[in-house]
């Protein structure tokens, strides 16, 4: 399966090597008809996709002959690679080693690239309505990002949750609209399964009955193949009954897809098979507040907000079909955890959401980089 996050990292390396900066000036051709279509409840937006580049050799962050940087947003913890953010939502590793990050702020609608003690660059800003748990909830680069510089985003407006397409110098274009918006349960996510298919997981909008209703887009796993704005083709429903905080993650090693959500009676980790059917891998009846997941090399990690943990388990294989209980690899060290990402090298990143549900510290919110132990190790 195609891994869009990995392609985004490859693009970042290529751009850094050629010293290019992408600017919003006619980089994608929508055509007159496409530009004339309704863009929803947005104001004009200019997207400048600047991808993270490695810090120069003389940077104080990696030069032992220079004193460490100081200031209100400098975190002494070397695992912290981004600070002083708004409550985070989607996180993507900006390079193969996971030393830089591309992170979304839920309430501001900003997508930001940065690294530890490095410059902060705004990749783009999407107008959002951040009431309750809505806002900018996820983003994914186009599978042909190097050529078209398009980014897709899952957002909230005043009237609905939706998927939009963003091009440099253009207003966001609606791709999928009418996803119900509620007082809670708005968080959803997107993932390119292939260059022509976008998988969308929608929250239940605080209404489990709507998640079971085939006529509602709430609480669904959807397949979207009409990726141009103005299309009237309805999405294909792959699965129903999703709860709140529906998040997709992928293991780039084998293309496995996973989904976490919060059902009324339990939090869940499920695997998405090749047909879109959901199969439970593990459940948490104590409802720790699962916020997201990431996967690499056969291991899956999940993050929680209420218990402030990162837990890890091994995905089942033909040789080992039984799923062992997850082990705790981080706990109550950084506060409430949000979304996660895995780098190509197997290093994970997790954002904090202390400004949303926790007790923010002086450098919150943050993105933390870590390498967990093997999932087969004993519970910490």
UniProtKB/TrEMBL annotation:
Residue segments, region Disordered: 36-77
Entry keyword set: Signal
Residues in the signal sequence: 1-28
Biased composition (Pro residues): 51-71
SUPFAM superfamilies to which the protein is assigned, alphabetical: Soluble quinoprotein glucose dehydrogenase (SSF50952)
Annotated ranges, domain Glucose/Sorbosone dehydrogenase: 100-237
Keyword Lyase: no
PROSITE patterns linked to this entry: PROKAR_LIPOPROTEIN
Pfam families per UniProt: GSDH
Protein name: Glucose/Sorbosone dehydrogenase domain-containing protein
Lineage per the UniProt record: Bacteria, Bacillati, Actinomycetota, Actinomycetes, Mycobacteriales
């Amino acid at each position: 399966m195609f891994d869009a996050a990995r392609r985004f990292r490859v693009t970042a390396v290529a751009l850094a090597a050629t010293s290019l900066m992408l600017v919003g000036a006619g980089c994608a051709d929508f055509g007159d008809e496409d530009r004339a279509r309704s863009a929803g409840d947005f104001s004009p937006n200019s997207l400048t996709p600047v991808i993270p580049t490695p810090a120069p050799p003389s940077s104080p962050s990696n030069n032992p002959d220079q004193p460490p940087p100081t200031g209100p947003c400098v975190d002494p913890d070397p695992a912290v690679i981004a600070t002083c953010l708004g409550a985070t939502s989607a996180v993507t590793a900006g390079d193969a080693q996971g030393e830089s990050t591309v992170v979304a702020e839920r309430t501001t609608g900003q997508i930001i690239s940065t690294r530890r003690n490095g410059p902060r660059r705004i990749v783009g800003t999407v107008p959002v309505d951040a009431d309750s748990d809505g806002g900018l909830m996820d983003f994914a680069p186009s599978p042909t990002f190097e050529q078209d510089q398009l980014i897709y985003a899952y957002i909230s407006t005043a009237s609905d949750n939706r998927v939009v397409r963003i091009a440099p110098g253009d207003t966001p274009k609606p791709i999928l609209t009418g996803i119900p918006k509620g007082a809670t349960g708005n968080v959803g996510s997107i993932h390119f399964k292939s260059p022509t298919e976008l998988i969308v997981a929608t929250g239940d909008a605080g209404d489990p009955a709507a998640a079971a209703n085939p006529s509602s887009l709430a609480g669904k796993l959807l397949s979207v193949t009409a990726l141009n704005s103005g299309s009237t083709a309805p999405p294909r429903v792959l699965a129903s009954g999703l709860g709140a905080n529906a998040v997709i993650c992928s293991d780039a090693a084998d293309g496995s897809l996973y989904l976490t959500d919060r059902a009324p009676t339990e939090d869940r980790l499920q695997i998405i098979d090749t047909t879109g059917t959901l199969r439970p891998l593990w459940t948490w009846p104590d409802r720790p507040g699962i916020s997201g997941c990431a996967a690499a090399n056969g291991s899956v990690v999940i993050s929680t907000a209420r218990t402030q943990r990162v837990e890890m388990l091994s995905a089942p294989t033909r040789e080992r079909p039984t799923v062992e209980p997850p082990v705790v690899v981080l706990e109550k060290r950084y506060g409430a955890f949000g979304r996660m990402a895995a780098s190509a090298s197997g290093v994970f990143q997790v954002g904090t959401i202390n400004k949303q549900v926790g007790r923010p510290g002086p450098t919150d919110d943050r993105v933390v980089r870590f390498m967990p132990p093997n999932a087969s190790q004993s519970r910490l």
